[in-house]
Amino acid sequence: MIKLNYKIVRSPKRKKLTITVERDRSIIIHAPEGTAEETIRRVVESKRQWLFDKINHTQKYQAPHAPGKELVNGESAPYLGREYRIEVTETKSGMVEFSRRFMIPLIQQSRRREVLRDWYLNRAKETILPRVKRYADALGVKVAEVNIVRNRYRWGSCTVKSNVSFNWRLIKAPMFVIDYVIVHELAHLMEGNHTPRFWNIVRANCPTAEKAKAWLKEHGQILEEEV
C-alpha cells in the first residue's frame, strides 16, 4: 500500500479536524490540540482515495508558476480577465502606467518583469482589500487582518485567528473570480469545512461561484505565470 505523507498542524482554538491539499500536492492535517496520532491516522486512511484523487488532479496541481513570456513591445499581459498590449516607452511618471495598455518605462526596461509585478501587487491591494470589507460586512463576519501575499500555491487562505490572505495573481482574473475567492475564504470563518452549509453560504453570496470555479480550473495556470 502506498504511504501517504502529511503534516499535522495542531491548534488549541480548532474544534474540528480538517484536511487540505496544497497546490504543491502536500497534505496538511489541521487538528485540535491533543488529538491522538492514531485518530488522525484513521481519518487519513478513511480519506485515502479522496486524497489520491486530489493530489493526482491533472490541472489544479500542475507545476506552479510556469515561466512567463518575455516582456517586449507587442506582447500582452492579463488584467482583470482581459489581455492588454505591452509597450516599452517613455512614461510621465517614470513608472508603469496603464491606459488600455501597459506602458513600461524605458528606464525600467531591464527590470520590466519586476516592475510590472509590483504594479500588479499594488492594484491587487487597491482592488481586493475594499471588496473583502464589503463582503465581510454582508456576511456578518469579523476579519482580524487582510493581506495580499506572494503565495506560491493558493488563491486564498484563512486562519483560526480570522486572518485572511489573497494571492496577488488574482488581479489578473475577472472580477467575478476575485469575488468568489473572497467569499470562499470569508465563508470559512463561518464554516471551517467544505460542508453543504459552507457551499450554501458561498452560493448565496456569490451566484457566479460555479462559473468562477470553472474559470479557475481552465485558466489558473495562466495566472500562475511569473507576470
TrEMBL record:
Residues in YgjP-like metallopeptidase domain copies: 15-219
CDD domains: M48_yhfN_like
Transmembrane segments: none
Hydrolase as UniProt keyword: yes
MF GO annotations: metallopeptidase activity
Signal peptide: none
Keyword RNA-binding set for record: no
Keywords: Hydrolase, Metalloprotease, Protease
Name under which the protein is recorded: SprT family zinc-dependent metalloprotease
Lineage of producing organism: Bacteria, Pseudomonadati, Verrucomicrobiota, Verrucomicrobiia, Verrucomicrobiales
